[in-house]
């Protein structure tokens, strides 16, 4: 299988040497309403830089008008308000990126993001408010921060829903912002705040017409933060007893947030999604499906139709990466060793040790139908144990619409930010 696959890659892949080599990819990608840009680690410089350059061209040449990333909504709102000129608190992109205080901070508080954020601000300055490009987060982790955002909004609007929000927030106070403590309490002792957050979400949803924005995007911000409050409560309570279902809750939440943002931008909405390959690469083409797990790529294809979703996977053969050896500890610059023999990344390397792009088409997809190990590096990583758990069996031509391979990659450059562990 490996020899056949290597020959197919040699035949079908395009070497990446100059900007024009991405033209065909951008043309095909732009036919979809959503462009999903993956990464095989959260700590690789080239993934961020390449996604940024692709995003710039999708915005300027193809009419895309928002970016959604695998980050917390409240922190991403600080960036969004900076690039749209709503908030003059932050004087630079670097200052705006200090909003990312939750571990792993390096995912968005890094030097690679500075250029994109400043570019977005400059690009937006010449546009009317309704045409400005947005930057949002769609993750589920910001339970306490999102509740605080909800309360702040309701206080400023003198809302009758304020008491419901305060009651929900008070319910969580005994857990001292510790999601694991809350999860154990809810899962095993039936001491949870489910009723309070459901009531809050229900009230805000039923009364949303009363919430005319007192500041830019206020209603969208309120609705999404209320949604996070409800879904995060469910996520943390489920995580303790069912890891697979908690994953599903998280990815379904991500899709719901995308839908909220799309609705805000209207019929002309075209979105760019940045997330790990494990989120954007269709779960049905991996062993995730065997475990009853879904992900953003699968759900978006099912919801929108495959022709309206373009998924680009990323990968490398070797290099360095930012990660931690356990959850919540200080990050390290680690060696990412050469890809495991017989893996997808190894085959890409054997087809030529250079950067390349492979677009899957009706004419070539059958050559990539076999399941093959595809490397995935998370925020927690141990290179010494990579062969035991970092390769996801995948049907590559079904998981992605195209794959961008960078032969040798380098570690991300984190900004120095005080870290708050999730």
From TrEMBL:
<protein>
    <submittedName>
        <fullName>Erythromycin esterase homolog</fullName>
    </submittedName>
</protein>
<dbReference type="InterPro" id="IPR014622">
    <property type="entry name" value="UCP036794_erythomycin"/>
</dbReference>
<dbReference type="InterPro" id="IPR052036">
    <property type="entry name" value="Hydrolase/PRTase-associated"/>
</dbReference>
<dbReference type="Pfam" id="PF05139">
    <property type="entry name" value="Erythro_esteras"/>
</dbReference>
<dbReference type="GO" id="GO:0046677">
    <property type="term" value="P:response to antibiotic"/>
</dbReference>
<dbReference type="InterPro" id="IPR007815">
    <property type="entry name" value="Emycin_Estase"/>
</dbReference>
């Amino acid at each position: 299988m490996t020899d056949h696959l290597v020959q197919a890659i040699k035949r079908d892949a395009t070497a990446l040497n100059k900007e024009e080599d991405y033209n065909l990819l951008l043309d095909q990608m732009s036919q979809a309403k959503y462009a999903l840009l993956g990464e095989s680690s959260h700590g690789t410089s080239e993934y961020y830089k390449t996604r940024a350059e692709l995003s710039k061209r999708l915005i300027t040449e193809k009419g895309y008008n928002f970016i959604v990333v695998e980050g917390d909504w409240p922190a991403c709102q600080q960036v969004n308000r900076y690039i749209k000129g709503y908030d003059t608190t932050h004087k630079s992109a670097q200052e705006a990126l200090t909003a990312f205080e939750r571990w792993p901070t390096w995912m968005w508080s890094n030097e690679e993001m500075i250029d994109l954020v400043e570019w977005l601000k400059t690009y937006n300055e010449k546009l009317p408010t309704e045409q400005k490009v947005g930057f949002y987060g769609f993750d589920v982790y910001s339970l306490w921060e999102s509740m605080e955002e909800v309360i702040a909004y309701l206080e400023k609007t003198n809302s009758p829903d304020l008491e419901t929000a305060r009651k929900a927030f008070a319910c969580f106070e005994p857990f001292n912002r510790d999601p694991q403590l809350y999860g154990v309490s809810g899962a095993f002792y039936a001491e949870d705040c489910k009723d309070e957050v459901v009531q809050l979400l229900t009230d805000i949803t039923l009364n949303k017409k009363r919430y005319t924005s007192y500041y830019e995007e206020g209603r969208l911000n309120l609705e999404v933060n209320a949604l996070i409050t409800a879904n995060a409560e469910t996520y943390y309570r489920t995580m303790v007893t069912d890891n697979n279902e908690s994953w599903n809750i998280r990815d379904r939440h991500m899709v719901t947030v995308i839908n909220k943002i799309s609705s805000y931008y209207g019929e002309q909405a075209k979105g760019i999604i940045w997330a790990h390959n494990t989120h954007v690469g269709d779960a049905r083409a991996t062993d995730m499906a065997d475990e009853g797990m879904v992900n953003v790529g699968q759900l978006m294809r099912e919801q929108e139709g495959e022709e309206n979703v373009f998924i680009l996977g990323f990968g490398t053969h070797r290099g360095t990466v930012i990660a931690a050896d356990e959850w919540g500890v200080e990050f390290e610059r680690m060696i990412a060793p050469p890809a495991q023999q017989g893996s997808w990344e190894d085959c890409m390397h054997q087809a030529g040790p250079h950067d390349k792009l492979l677009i899957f088409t009706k004419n070539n997809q059958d050559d990539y139908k076999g399941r093959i190990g595809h490397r995935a590096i998370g925020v927690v990583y141990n290179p010494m144990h990579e062969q035991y758990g970092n390769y996801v069996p995948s049907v590559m031509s079904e998981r992605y619409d195209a794959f961008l391979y960078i032969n040798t990659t380098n570690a991300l450059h984190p900004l120095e930010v005080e870290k708050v562990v999730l």
